[in-house]
Design brief:
CATH topology of the largest domain: Fumarylacetoacetate hydrolase, domain 2
Structural class: alpha+beta
Number of domains: 2
Number of strands: 25
Helix content: 10-25%
CATH architecture of the largest domain: Alpha-Beta Complex
Strand content: 25-35%
Oligomer: single chain
Strand order of the largest sheet: 7-6-21-13-14-16-8
């Protein structure tokens, strides 16, 4: 297995697949260009007996039941799979009959949304992004709101409109108020945008009324995915005061199909950005909770070559996912298995590392030029947005794959 693939032996992510034209779902993992069905490996006796773990757990349309067995069980299954796939495992490699029954080319498997999402929270955790947006709308003196450096700002989004990578997104309708008119108008958004984000999936619940301490937060996180929280900027700008995003955000969010565990990402753990002022005690940690994950944003006009328009990194997040989860539950809010918490747009310190078109084209004043010579201030119908992510050092590479979708005309 080459080490330069997103899905190297060091990764072993989890997802849910379906063979085309069948109603059969299965939990699977991926190595290179191959999808491996864990349900059939289990049935064939390649996984050891784990108390409480039955083959039916791996014959589901989501990972929720598997995660509910406990993250220690998930960790054990990942370890067994690693040992099974290691080069030199003649017992497994000699079972040629498994190919085509247990192992499939990735092109033959339709990947599903990895979890059944009960609730979805979107945070606003990139200082660079929050500052840039604040400068645009309030000026540099008041760019960050007074609360921003004291808590991870977030809002509850719409879980039902989260879709897996490859599902195209229609341009939404809504109210917005152009600058040159006195009354709002109704119609398709003129400012369709993406938001480059990462999301974590809750893998361990907390009871209602009980908070999760910061030092325990990562034990509640099953893994990470790539996330694109689509935005209609003009609709959002008109509606968001005083209660925040609504129709400008809830029409669609796109999520990558593979859940990459924190164990796989551990070699890429880095220190979190210095926080000033010092966070309140329940948000204060000496441990680094960010990861050095390179994130790329590609824009492809219909029928044309894709252009990489931004490169940023998970390590830039000011508020970490551990802080997000600790803050989310500090009032006793009960998170449930399968809940999704997204980071908010991840922007870096330079103009080529911004995570939204709003920033990259600076509210339409600096249009981007793509490889085909066309320009973009916001997204056009037929544009495909692709977010890729991977962590890499001298020895290993662990990728999250990609999340992509095309913008379709309004309906």
């Amino acid at each position: 297995m080459p080490d330069d693939t997103d899905f190297s032996l060091h990764n072993i992510p989890f997802g849910v697949g379906q063979i085309a034209h069948s109603n059969e779902f299965f939990v699977c993992t991926r190595l290179g260009d191959s999808i491996i069905r864990i349900d059939l490996l289990f049935a064939a006796g390649y996984l050891p007996t784990i108390p409480g773990l039955q083959v039916d757990v791996f014959k589901q349309a989501s990972l929720n039941q598997f995660l509910a067995k406990g993250l220690d069980v998930v960790r054990t299954v990942r370890k067994v799979l690693y040992e099974l796939f290691e080069s030199g495992n003649e017992s497994f490699a000699s079972q040629h009959v498994l190919h085509g029954q247990v192992i499939y080319p990735y092109q033959k498997v339709q990947m599903m949304l990895p979890v059944k999402v009960g609730d979805y929270t979107d945070f606003y955790s990139s200082q660079e992004h929050a500052y840039n947006v604040g400068v645009m709308f309030r000026g540099p003196e008041n760019a960050l709101m007074p609360n921003w450096k004291y808590l991870p700002v977030g809002y509850h989004g719409r879980a039902s409109s989260i879709v897996v990578s490859g599902v195209d997104v229609h341009r939404p309708h809504g109210q917005f108020k152009p600058q040159d008119v006195e009354e709002p108008v109704f119609g398709p958004t003129r400012q369709m945008d993406f938001e480059l984000e990462m999301a974590f999936v809750v893998g361990k619940e907390n009871d209602l009324g009980l908070s999760v301490a910061l030092e325990d937060a990562e034990s509640h996180i099953a893994g990470l995915c790539l996330f694109n929280d689509w935005s209609a900027r003009d609709i959002q700008a008109w509606e968001y005061q005083p209660l925040g995003p609504f129709l400008g955000k809830n029409f669609a969010s796109s999520m990558s199909p593979w859940l990459v565990t924190l164990d796989a990402l551990e070699p890429f753990r880095v220190a979190s950005p210095k926080q000033d002022p010092k966070p309140l005690p329940y948000l204060l940690s000496q441990k680094g909770h960010n990861f050095d994950i390179q994130l790329e944003l590609w824009l492809q006009p219909e029928g044309e070559e894709a252009t990489c328009i931004s490169t940023t990194n998970h390590k830039y997040l000011y508020w970490t996912m551990a802080q997000q989860l600790a803050h989310h539950t500090v009032n006793g809010c009960n998170l449930q298995i399968g809940d999704v918490c997204a980071s908010g747009t991840i922007s870096g310190p330079t103009e080529d590392s911004y995570g939204s078109m709003l920033e990259l084209a600076w509210r339409g004043t600096k249009p981007l030029t793509l490889k085909d010579g066309s320009k973009r201030s916001f997204l056009e119908d037929g544009d495909t947005v692709i977010i890729k992510g991977f962590a890499k050092n001298k020895n290993i590479r662990v990728g999250l794959g990609e999340v992509r979708a095309k913008i379709l005309p309004t309906v």
